[in-house]
Amino acid sequence: MHEPEFVAVVREKIVVSDGVVALVLGHADGTPLPSWRPGAHIDLVLGDGLVRQYSLCGDPADASAYRLGVLREPAGRGGSAYVHDTLSPGDRILVRGPRNHFELEDAPSYLFVAGGIGVTPLLPMIAEVDAGGARWRLLYGGRTRPSMAFLDVLDRYGDRVLVRPQDRHGLLDLKGFLEEATRDTLVYGCGPEPLLAALEDACGARDMLRVERFAPKESIHDDRDGMFEVVLAQSGLTLTVGPGQTVLECVEAAGIPVLSSCQEGTCGTCETDVLEGTPDHRDSLLTEDERAEGTTMMICVSRCLGERLVLDL
Amino acid sequence: MTSGATTSSGPGPSVPGPVPVPVPVLDDDPFSVSFLADPYPRHERMREAGPVVWLSHYGIWASARHEQVVTALTDWRAFSSASGVGLADFRKEKPWRVPSLLLEADPPDHTRVREVMTEVLSSRRVRGLREEFAAVAESLVGDLVERGTFDAVRDLAEVFPLRVFPDALGLPEEGRENLMPYGGMAFNGFGPRNDLFHEAMADAPRIQEWINESCRRENLAAGGLGQDIWAFADTGRITPEQAAMLVRSLLSAGIDTTVYAIGNALAALAAHPGQWARVHENPALAKLAFEEAIRFESPVQTFFRTTTRAVDLGGVRIGPGEKILLFLGAANRDPRKWINPHTLDVTRRTAGHVGFGTGIHACVGQQVARLEGDVVLTALARRAAMLSPTAAPEPRPNNTLRGFSSAPIRVEKAAVRGR
Lengths: 313, 419
Fold this sequence. Notes:
The complex is a heterodimer of chains A (313) and B (419). Chain A is an alpha/beta fold and 313 residues long. Chain A has 3 domains: 5-100, Translation factors (Elongation Factor Tu (Ef-tu), domain 3); 109-216, Nucleotide-binding domain of ferredoxin-NADP reductase (FNR) module (Rossmann fold); 225-311, Ubiquitin-like (UB roll), CATH 3.10.20.30. Chain A has 8 helices and 18 strands. Chain A has helices spanning 79-85, 122-132, 151-154, 166-169, 174-178, 193-203, 247-253, 288-293; strands spanning 5-17, 20-27, 40-47, 50-55, 66-71, 92-100, 109-115, 135-142, 161-165, 185-191, 209-213, 228-232, 237-241, 271-276, 279-280, 296-298, 303-304, 308-311. In chain A, the strands form 4 sheets. Chain A has a 6-stranded antiparallel beta sheet, with helices on one face. A 5-stranded parallel beta sheet of chain A has the order 9-8-7-10-11, sandwiched between helices. A 5-stranded mixed beta sheet of chain A has the order 13-12-18-14-16. In chain A, helix 3 (151-154) links the parallel strand 8 (135-142) and strand 9 (161-165). The longest helix of chain A has 11 residues, at 122-132. By secondary structure, chain B is of the alpha+beta class. Chain B has one domain (21-413): CATH 1.10.630.10. Chain B contains 17 helices and 14 strands. Chain B has helices at 33-37, 39-49, 66-74, 109-120, 123-147, 152-157, 160-169, 179-188, 195-200, 204-214, 225-235, 240-253, 256-271, 273-281, 286-296, 328-331, 366-383; strands at residues 6-8, 23-26, 53-55, 60-63, 79-80, 149-151, 302-307, 311-313, 316-318, 323-327, 384-389, 394-395, 404-406, 408-413. Chain B is globular. Chain B starts with 5 loop residues before the first strand and ends in a 6-residue tail after the last strand. At the A-B interface, strand 6 of A face helix 4, helix 5, helix 15 and helix 17 of B. Chain B: Keywords: Heme, Iron, Metal-binding, Monooxygenase, Oxidoreductase. Chain B: Residues 1-23 are annotated as: Disordered. Chain B: One of its GO terms (molecular function) is monooxygenase activity. Chain A: Its cofactor is FAD.
């Protein structure tokens, strides 16, 4: 079965800190929203191929509303900018999920570590853990205090929450914080990659750490745009595709007429048979099976996972 | 009626803008029979008048330039399809049929059904159609070439898609003669309520009933694209009502468009013997020739969008809720984009033409269309050394489509050679 997918309506949009807005979404047809557990996230399908994941930070018992916190990411491809600048109360938006890769496991005590907007999935965890009577503490870091969202929500937990903006306290003292951990403690961390790496270091070999990573999808490919060789079997040509150059451009530059249209992997016009080599598929058309098979590729965007491709051109 | 373009600073509803840009005003009726029969000189006048013009006859904006047409097609947030992609504004008047879930919709509603259709018409699925389509093309074209002279439209362009596509869909044999008239209704339906519209709609209730019946699950053959769509209703990704509507989309958009495209390609290639010689010499050029013909003589000439907010297009301030007519066929001949745009060149780099649209509403069946064009032209390229028109093609006026009702040609059979 397919995971839930439905049209939601934006009920509220509130600025909760410098650079962060909270969205409240309801089901467009007024029916209850799919249920979820702390740690879950949803996809917002923003159009133009933009799909962004956001953790749910409200109350799982409230089936009438999802709450999300969205940080403006100036380096992003436009997903967060769209949410900040354009999306308005009353707008309808496609939602997929929820799904959960960050499940809250049972433990007698917890330590939570949040960096910036990474606090969002921890909020419902903390609410549940606190209601269940377990011991817990939260170490919450951010750039500056005004940039840190949901401090008001955390206010009621008193000194179990340590708010540590970097401009006043420097880097988080993870080592000191983790000294409180006992043998049964679980550590939940969410935030930027350097923080999570430091947290992994600090936890060492002990299996107590659970993290969720924010990997901005748009940057995944950046370090894979290397050079590779393309052999055109029919024409008997061997070409070198440089970084920042597409297979299509290379083939066209060699004077081989090939049909192409959208040049962004969405129309399928430039699909080409692959005789040897493993394509690095970057189109939006091929199914998972077809990708795995690797016998065909869209040469306007897709590249090579190895050093050489042989194409039926 | 066709006086030169005049310039005014204030056509249309007055919109508070930063700098009032003078907007050319033209009084052409782009849906008149005279315009439709000979569009290119009128396109040129409109294109050269400015990036965006005001068509006073209907009180609408229009653009005939590649850059602005692409911008409007791409920016679906500012240029909406949900108010209809024809002249009628669905917010103000009742559409003649239930709006299309694909064509006449915006995200997020559009996104879900579009994704389903992208999967239905996946490249693997379209590849699977090739063998059957090629066999039909070989047989049909083989017979016609033996005859020496035939009508490229009546004997080939109208026959081939009407045989292969309904079969691929799994439509019942009976009643297929309704498909072309329904396409005529759909595409004339995007224009004003002129004579073309009323003629097309003359038998509308009966044809619509056949169409609606044909979209039902029990009337579609197993293994066809129609059942593929219905299978998505079982997964819950679409409702049964949506499945029927998506089958209807294939019926409205999948027949006439390819009939016109193949007819236009054959007429254009017959009129350019030098270009045909290259295709005959190297039949691998057939698919490039088909693509170039779509640029050169675009089957879908126009679509409308409606602004959702005040927007600048080519320096012209357009207010919210206004209709703009996008001339795809004219954008495909914009000299700002194309070298020698009025020349058919089968080895031209055609990427960027908007004959299939672009952006989120780009034709979802474009690979099926390319497959049909490729197999027909390939079959002909192998057999015919020369094509030549025996009479001028007869235009078939339609409010949206450009093409011919007849294009008689003579073929010179090639010396037998290996396939």
